[in-house]
Design goal:
The chain has 209 residues and is α/β, with parallel strands linked by helices. It has helices at residues 11-22, 54-60, 81-96, 119-124, 130-145, 184-196, and strands spanning 2-6, 26-31, 44-48, 66-69, 101-105, 149-153, 157-159, 168-170, 181-183, 206-208. Helix content is 33%, strand content 20%.
């Protein structure tokens, strides 16, 4: 598979790139700062660009089988209009170049899935995370309105722990853990599995232990 990853220099993005390369896929990493990519591999191509720049995004999209966005905010706890615009540019470029498969990494604290988790993520986290949640909701709305074969993935709080493979996925799964956690390795594992064997096209699965 030829995979294009936006947000590839982030911690989740780098896990995804590494696992994809281990799995024999060809990966293009679209990043603002190429020096942040610590991985080298014959099947890895690094493209420098700003996700809010349509020309840069549109030049990177052709030739890929699927696109994944693991984009985070520029400054934690702050709104990031450029990333919201960036998701819009990704969708626009994919539709223009007839690349249909998109996976967007969101957060379980968004919208109705907040009721699936325990007290901390349901009631406390939305206060400091209100800007990031609002951005995710705006980006999810753009993805849902597109003509793409999209999947919106909603994990809980992410960690740098090891891959376990012991997680659940589904649109209605729940947990009563006060602060559910999932490793970035497991999130990357799920995304690559969903690309290989799609089970949630135009759906919004949650990921939980």
């Amino acid at each position: 598979m030829r995979l294009l990853v936006f947000g590839a220099s982030g911690r989740t993005g780098q896990q995804l790139v590494g696992q994809a390369l281990e799995g024999g896929h060809a990966v293009t990493a679209f990043v603002r700062r190429p020096a942040k990519i610590a991985i080298t591999h014959p099947e890895l191509r690094v493209v420098q660009g700003d996700v809010a720049d349509y020309a840069a995004v549109a030049s990177a999209v052709p030739g890929h089988d699927a696109v994944v966005s693991t984009l985070g905010v520029g400054t934690p706890l702050k709104p990031d209009a450029d990333v919201v615009l960036g998701v819009q540019q990704i969708i626009r470029a994919m539709e223009a170049h007839h690349i249909r498969r998109l996976i967007y990494l969101s957060f379980i604290g968004v919208q109705e899935s907040r009721s699936a988790v325990g007290f901390v993520l349901r009631y406390l986290a939305p206060i400091p995370l209100r800007h990031e949640i609002a951005d995710h909701e705006a980006k999810e709305a753009l993805v849902r309105a597109s003509q793409l074969d999209w999947t919106i993935v909603r994990p809980p709080k992410l960690t740098d722990g090891p891959r376990t493979g012991r997680y659940r996925s589904g649109e209605s799964i729940t947990t009563w853990k006060p602060l559910p956690l999932l490793s970035r390795d497991d999130v990357a594992h799920f995304i690559l599995g969903e690309l290989a064997q799609p089970a949630y096209v135009r759906q919004v699965p949650r990921l939980l232990h």
